[in-house]
Write a structure and sequence with these properties.
41% helix; 446 residues; 11% strand; elongated; five-stranded parallel sheet
Length: 446
């Protein structure tokens, strides 16, 4: 009798890809109601984008719906999840970055849904942002010491939370900041569509946003999985033409919606929005989505524009952080750490100078032309600039950014540091001279 061998795996994985109900009912009672609702249409379109990553050699990444409680964020995930599976298709952020590796592998080339970022610690979110978008887990050692093969995947993921990525990473109060690469990999989209209905814009005849949300959840729990099967069968039948069609569409979408002078980070994110739009339009052309042509593109363009508005512009994220770091230091400390000099120096009734006691002095402040009509200038001492103002940043890069924007007064020969005569020093010292314009408006002397 042959030997019977039983394989015992490390753990049992639950299959999230299930089918229930009917495609026609899903189209009529769920997908059809996404028309006119940019966030819902975008979430459904994103559900079809995963299978396009491999043939188009596109970059994976995530979109994070950020907003207050009970405005419909989880409803959007349930609607998107119904493309691939049932109620259990949604995962949670309550996991370590190691634990998410296995989850990501199960959702390779499909859709990963992560609800409630608030349940995860900021440091885990920071690590997971890179890991999920890059499509590769940690390299670990095998029992014999050799390197084990790292887990790999490709996926588009949707996330929700009351805080954005940067705020979540910084919430522990340790001064952590989201890197530009993390913000590009997980794009924050305001969940509130601005119509006073939370994530919705068109209730399609329902009496309230709550009633509309309950209807969508009910349909998603009853009819699910069919849309992905139909979509994949159409893709497989004409697989070789996918990449050229998507790339052509993406180029047109980017040319229309991405500002011409936008930074590379913005154009990189726009390419992901274009992929989602292409997926939605392709599903529409296949007859999977009962939408008019252009609906997916319209939704993606609206979400992309809202992302730019929330981001604060189309310049590099690093430059925005450079300006914010200096402005934040001045807002926090103001006059308390900058000794007044020149006309601003306090004097008694006889015109004699009054001694100032500045704790942890960071520099000096004076009027630009030593008259009460001039703007205030802040003179930063170089070591404080490096160790405190630019903590965690490249101090030279910060100075270059400010100089480029006219928020730093360079020295002779265009040098970033400026020689200044300051109280307590016999010889001029190297300083960084920052006008009060950086605070957003000029400040006048009393």
């Amino acid at each position: 009798m042959p030997e019977r061998i039983i394989y015992q795996a490390d753990g049992a994985a639950e299959d999230p890809y299930r089918v229930g109900g009917e495609l026609e009912s899903w189209q009529l009672d769920l997908a059809g109601h996404a028309v006119g609702n940019s966030r819902l249409a975008f979430a459904i379109s994103a559900a079809f984008a995963g299978p396009l990553l491999y043939p188009c050699e596109a970059e994976g990444g995530g979109f994070h719906f950020r907003g207050g409680s009970s405005i419909g964020k989880t409803t959007a995930l349930q609607v998107a999840g119904s493309v691939w599976g049932g109620r259990d298709f949604i995962r949670t952020w309550r996991a370590t970055s190691n634990g998410l590796e296995g989850v990501a592998m199960m959702h390779c080339d499909t859709l990963l849904l992560l609800d409630e970022m608030g349940q995860c610690e900021g440091r885990e979110v920071a690590a997971s942002a890179y890991m999920l978008a890059n499509g590769q887990g940690k390299t670990r050692a095998a029992r014999n010491g050799a390197a084990r093969r790292a887990a790999r995947w490709r996926t588009i993921f949707l996330s929700t939370g009351e805080l954005g990525l940067a705020d979540k990473i910084a919430e522990d109060g340790r001064g952590r900041r989201a890197a530009a690469g993390q913000e590009v990999r997980i794009v924050d989209i305001p969940a509130d569509a601005g119509a006073g209905l939370g994530i919705f814009e068109d209730l399609h005849g329902f009496t309230s946003a709550d009633a509309f949300a309950r209807h969508l959840k009910s349909v998603a729990a009853e009819h699910f999985g069919h849309a992905s099967h139909t979509f994949l069968s159409r893709l497989a039948a004409d697989f070789d033409t996918i990449a050229p069609k998507v790339k052509t569409f993406a180029e047109r979408f980017t040319a229309k919606h991405c500002p011409a002078n936008a930074d590379g980070q913005v154009s990189r994110v726009c390419a992901r929005f274009a992929l989602v739009a292409a997926a939605g339009e392709m599903a529409t052309a296949f007859g999977v989505l009962p939408w008019p042509a252009g609906e997916a593109s319209k939704a993606a363009a609206r979400c992309f524009e809202d992302w730019i508005a929330e981001r604060g512009g189309i310049e590099p994220a690093e430059e925005r952080e450079h300006v914010a770091a200096v402005r934040r230091f001045l807002e926090l400390h103001g006059n308390s750490r900058f000794e007044a000099m020149g006309t601003l120096a306090p004097k008694d009734g006889y015109g004699a100078p009054i001694e100032q006691r500045i704790i942890n002095r960071a520099g000096f402040r004076r009027l630009e032309d030593d008259s009460y009509a001039g703007e205030t200038e802040f003179i930063f001492l170089p070591e404080v600039w490096k160790s405190e103002v630019c903590a965690g940043l490249d101090p030279t890069a910060v100075a270059k950014t400010l100089a480029k924007r006219g928020l730093l007064k360079p020295g002779s020969g265009g040098k970033l540091q400026n020689f200044q005569r300051v109280p307590g020093s016999k010889n001029p010292v190297r300083c960084y001279v920052i006008p009060s314009e950086i605070l957003g408006e000029a400040t006048s002397a009393p």
